Amino acid sequence: MSKFLVIGSAGFIGFHVVQSLLKSSQNSVVGIDLLNDTNDLELKKMRLEFQGIVLEKISSNSLCKSIFFRNYQFMELNLSKFDFIFSFIIREQFDYVIHLNDNNISFQAVKDLFQINRFNSHEFLNILEACRHSNVKHFVFSSTVDLFGLFNNNQLLELDKVLNTKGDLNYYNRENEIMAYYYSSVFKVPTTCIRFSSVFGAWSQSDSVIFKFTESIIKDRPVELICQGNIVLNFCYIDEVVRDIIQLTFNPPIESFEKKSNVYSTLKFDSPFNIFNGGNNVPMRLIDFLALVETSLGKKSIRNFIDSPNVLNKKIFSDLSTAEHAKSTYNENNMLDGINVFVKWYLEFYVRYMATEDFLYN
Prior knowledge:
Layout: E1 2-7, H1 12-21, E2 27-33, H2 41-50, E3 64-65, E4 72-76, H3 82-92, E5 96-99, H4 107-110, H5 113-134, E6 138-144, E7 155-156, H6 168-187, E8 191-196, E9 199-200, H7 209-218, E10 222-226, E11 232-234, E12 236-237, H8 238-249, E13 273-277, E14 283-285, H9 286-297, E15 302-306, E16 315-318, H10 332-355
Parallel strand pairs: 1-2, 1-5, 2-4, 5-6, 6-8, 7-16, 8-13, 9-12, 10-15, 11-16
Antiparallel strand pairs: 3-4, 11-14
Helix pairs in contact: 1-8, 3-5, 5-6, 7-9, 9-10
């Protein structure tokens, strides 16, 4: 039996990773999350209830067993509490630690650099230190292609230099990548970083593009499009992302490049460390994505085009040729299928939940 710790398990991607892992009775899964309002707290609670976590039984620093899955437990935990998180990870002896924490705090939100550091880099360092001493088989964490900021080559490769990072959260994503590489190089912690961008699907965050588009169309609100909707992004359907995370988790990098033989270890690092761009190879304009949402809903949007002269990089998408999963046949039809799944979830689940929060148990 493999034992997993999923950090950020109540978040969008973390929730889906837990769902995937729970399909096998051979996996024992512990999810931890800090249930604050940095992202939609109601959605976090919805996800936990869907996985059988009774909200009234949740308490800080104490595991709560799922009533739906025998192999799943959840704990609300503040990652800044080093002594507790350290002893917890050492005691539980997890085989794999998957860090998908979405509780990042931005300067715009708190305007306190010390608090930002505590919520971002300090918490990440706590996890690294615990993994170092617990001999985990593989530490996997998420980052974003957005950290490249201003860049001449719009199709971003894993080893492209990061020299023009913009945005405080992207600075911390880059800092976390550097710290993870250090721990991998010095302490030989097998580590993989997966960079994502514009992930969507059922249970998406309420501030995501697809959520905003869908809600605006349904409620007859204008959809705001910057740069005439011509910004190009790698829209990644959640199933593709989860596939990448699970496959890479079971394929940790090894130390010597010359000894690497599997397709998941092709970059030239002198330590057990790897970076991959995750998702699919279908860059799409924002306005074209909106058109697919309109098709799924069977309703046209009210479009409001906004001038954005400060947006310098209108194309941000990643090259996926490094990993085998780049051979995906994902196309626009698959994209529409994913959008249809989200729309169905939104109309039949989210709206219903917001009207009556106890229907999960009926």
